[in-house]
Amino acid sequence: MKNKIILSCLLAVGLTGCTESFLDITPETSLSSVTFFKTQADFEQAVNACYVPLRTIYNDRSWLLSEQHSDNTYYARNTAFGATEQQEDLADFSIPVSNGLTTNTHVLNQYRQDYLIIARANQVLALIDKADFDATAKANLKGQAQFMRGFAYFELYRYFNKAPLQLTPVTTREAAAAKMGTAADLEKIIMDDLIGAAANLKPKSTQEAGRATSGAAKTVLANLYIIQKKWAEAEKLMKEVVAEGNYTLIPDYNNVFSTSTANKNNAESVFEVQFQEGSNGFNGTFMYNFLPRPMLETELKTLSGTSNPQPQTGEGNNIPTPDVIAAYEAGDLRKDASIGYILCSSTLWEGKTYPIIKKYMKTHSLNGNHGMNWPVYRYSEVLLFLAEALNEQGKTAEAATYLNMVRKRAGLANSTATSQADFRTALMQERRVELAFENKRWHDLVRTDTYKAVITARGEAIKKDPFSYYYQRGYTLRSNSFSVIEKYYPMPADEAALNPNIK
User: Fold this and answer.
1) Residue 54 contacts by C-beta under 8 Å, 6 or more apart in sequence?
2) Model-level pTM?
């Protein structure tokens, strides 16, 4: 299967004529949906194509909009390189906004990649019921398309809290300008798709590795229910995932995350994005995106292990902040597994030694090219979701059972929180360190409505002591830093120019 799902993805891109744009109107090949979507193999290729944008989202974008847009990470300013406003605007909460729209490139590309998933899934879902092939295989393929569309709308829901409603293939230019959906509209789509996916998909024990499973669908749906504060519904789903017996905590946190060639889709993995090292175009580069700069080739080799390391220039991103480093309790085994340090002898920052995200620093063969998978949902988060859902219903003693399973693996004693309020605080602290650098923190701050207080305090800390946040001595933040602390991202201006319903 190692190459099967990935190779089929690229074939499907060519066959269906999908591009990076919002939605295609004119087919780019002689094959049309009428002539192509006939056999099980046709639908397998089309479903595989739905997964492809995930690599772009998680390699290039999600960490910028989620982790670096929180108090967990920051950028390593390289004043010798020049400005990189697009990334800095996200980290410094200074995104340009006019009439509810933004020109930020990363916001635009996240939006477009999600709609690329949606467009491909719509094509599958519009035609698969009419196709004649094995019913079991058809249900599984349909479930994957439902999962992917539900997941993409869940991304839009969390980032924008509104989005145009596209649920059928676009065949005319007028149809591309879909009406804007509210948060409630998106919630219904997500629930319908994920409930359908959970019913159609195979469990992890029988599903082909790397594909969506019924457990993954239930986990994303539970995530939505938790945002909606539907605690009983979230509890039910997470208990079902636990009862499956298909997942377990890996005893050593160091071994939770994949290497470039091994440990992928392991016992703790609920859903992860597939990468493959090599020249076929399926590789990741996110490890390199997360390195401070400048870095000599000899310094890089200590992390990558490659035989041909190249010096790193430009500006580093996603550097752990002093805040998240201090968040770990004494004796927490996750700290050394998650955060390491690297000397950058040529950097202008006087501190020279930077923290790095160690959980993604794995040796590999090719410079600038690795195959580490990205963890989207892990079993530890299922346990923390369950603990949260139970506590919010007043079942704090039962909730502690699941929280303490996660703490025990980290080498920590049981939580001392006994009241609902104290347990709530303890659980969010546990989520921060257990899931650090996995693109969870910003969304947790939003759903708990603590984002403004936390980010305001973070901005004040950076302005007070820029050096501790990787600025050279004497440098200060831009005057507009931490001036746009909003709960949701503004809609992309380029898409509003194409669809008058986007406001």
Assistant:
1) 117, 273
2) 0.93
| Number of neighbours of residue 308 by Cβ within 10 angstroms | 11
DSSP 367: T
Per-residue pLDDT of the chain (503 residues; tens, 9 = 90+): 444 443 333 333 333 333 343 333 334 444 456 668 889 999 999 999 999 999 999 999 999 999 999 999 999 988 888 767 899 999 999 999 999 999 999 999 999 999 999 999 999 999 999 999 999 999 999 999 999 999 999 999 999 999 999 999 998 888 889 999 999 999 999 999 999 999 999 999 999 999 999 999 999 999 999 999 999 999 999 999 999 999 999 999 999 999 999 999 999 999 999 999 999 999 999 999 999 999 999 999 999 999 999 999 988 999 999 999 999 999 999 999 999 999 999 999 999 999 999 999 999 999 999 999 999 999 999 999 999 999 999 999 999 999 999 999 999 999 999 999 999 999 999 999 999 999 999 999 999 999 999 999 999 999 999 999 999 999 889 999 999 999 999 999 999 999 999 98
Residue from 64, 56, 62, 65 nearest 19 by CA? 56
> Tokens 């509104």, residue?
162
CB 291 within 8 A of CB 303: yes
Alpha-carbon distance of 477 to 441, in angstroms, equals 23
Measured CA to CA, the distance from residue 218 to residue 239 in angstroms comes to 10
One DSSP character per residue, 380-447 reads HHHHHHHHHHHHTTT-HHHHHHHHHHHHHHTT-PPP---SHHHHHHHHHHHHHHHTTTSS-HHHHHHH
- The Cβ of residue 462 has, within 10 Å, a number of other Cβ atoms equal to 25
> Beta-strand (E) ranges in 249-373?
269-273, 316-320, 339-343, 353-357
Overall size of the chain counted in residues: 503
In one-letter notation, the amino acid at residue 63 is W
Distance in Å from the first CA to the final CA of the chain: 43
Helix (H, G, I), strand (E, B) or coil at 108: helix
Token pair recorded at residue 403: 């929280």
Please name the amino acid found at residue 471.
Y
Residue 268 in tokens = 């703790």
**What tokens does 456 get?**
């305001």
CA 491 – CA 142 distance, rounded (Å) = 30
Alpha helix positions (H), 435-501? 441-447, 451-464, 493-496
The answer to whether residues 434 and 276 touch, using CB atoms and an 8 Å cutoff, is no
